[in-house]
Amino acid sequence: MLDLMPRQRPVARTAESEKITINLGCVDLGHVDLLVAEGVYGNRTDFIRTAIRREIDRHAEITRQSVARKKVELGLRSIDRAELEEARATGRALDIRVLGLVSIASDVTPDLARETIASLEVLGSLQASPAVRAALADRLR
């Protein structure tokens, strides 16, 4: 098992990175280590990031079509208390779809989130309090 942590900082996660863990076979890992030893990559993480970016670039057209078809927002989507209170005041329910990071502000209560977020689809990472995550559990896709 190869444990990858792009940054080792004692602070909370940021929009810049997300820790993942992957399992590689011994031969694949050996190839990665050989390329690192030969100086092609600085470390295992550099190799894996480069490989991921190449695959994302290779399939960019599929991503573009899917984002357009599903009306997905790209990048960072911050949801604050004021936005949700405005939605509640106007009787709107939000359907949120994001490829990237969704960050729900710490002052958003579970009740406010439940009243105003009809659905939440995150392809990437969701940052929200445990209570808000629990309140939206049946609406997460």
Brief rundown of the structure:
With 141 residues, the protein is of the alpha/beta class.
- What strand order characterises the main sheet? 3-4-5
What is the string of SSEs from the N terminus onward? EEHHHEHEHEH
Measured as a percent range, the helix fraction is 40-55%
Percent strand equals 15-25%
Structural class based on helices, strands and sheet pairing: alpha/beta
Query: What radius of gyration results from the CA coordinates?
Result: 19 Å
Average per-residue pLDDT, rounded, comes to: 88
Tally the helices: what do you get? Answer: 6
The biggest sheet, with number of strands, parallel, antiparallel or mixed sense and barrel status, is: 3 strands, parallel
Uncertain segments of ≥5 residues (pLDDT<50)? 1-13
In total, how many domains does the architecture comprise? Answer: 2
Beta strand count: 5
Task: State the end-to-end distance.
Answer: 28 Å
Given the C-alpha coordinates, what overall shape results? elongated
